Amino acid sequence: MALDTAKKEEIVKNFARKDGDTGSSEVQIALLSARVTELTEHLKIHKKDHASRLGLLKLVGQRKRLMRYLKRQDKELYAKTIATLNIRDNI
User: Fold this and answer.
1) Looking at residues 16-44, what average pLDDT do you find?
2) pLDDT confidence of residue 27
3) 21: domain CATH number?
4) Dihedral angle computed from the Cα positions of residues 45, 49, 50 and 56, in that order, rounded to the nearest 10 degrees
5) Run of H or E including 82
6) Which of 20, 51, 56, 84 could connect to 39 by a Cys-Cys bridge, CB 3.0–4.6 Å?
7) Is 77 contained in some domain?
8) Long-range contacts, stretch 36-43, CB < 8 angstroms, 24+ apart
9) Is residue 60 in some structural domain?
């Protein structure tokens, strides 16, 4: 269920603030969003996979905390990030 290296590098390249940036909030939110999307598709097929469902809920919670942090720190960057990722602003 983990992202492949090429996809991860592409996401990092699109959201990084500078070269080699892998830990900024935007990059982490984008990576978590990609994993959430993949897990959601997996769970549409495997409805009884409760372990993956728990993992999905943990990922969504982690992404929500990062989004709340980013919104407090830089509202403009937050708005740009959620617009790019097509995430609802429910914080």
Assistant:
1) 95
2) 96
3) 1.10.287.10
4) -60
5) helix 75-85
6) 56
7) yes
8) 36/60, 36/63, 38/1, 38/3, 39/1, 42/1
9) yes
Q: Give the pLDDT of residue 53.
A: 97
| CA 23 to each of CA 2, 18, 20, 28, 79: distance values in angstroms, whole numbers, following the listed order | 17, 11, 9, 6, 19
Interhelix angle for 75-85 vs 25-45, to 10°? 30
The DSSP secondary-structure symbol of 4 reads: P
**How many domains in the chain?**
1
Other residues' Cβ atoms within 10 Å of the Cβ of residue 47: 8
> How is residue 7 written in tokens?
């996809």
The fraction of the chain above a pLDDT of 70, given in percent, is 99
What contacts 71, CB < 8 A, 6 or more positions away?
A: 78, 91
pTM comes to: 0.93
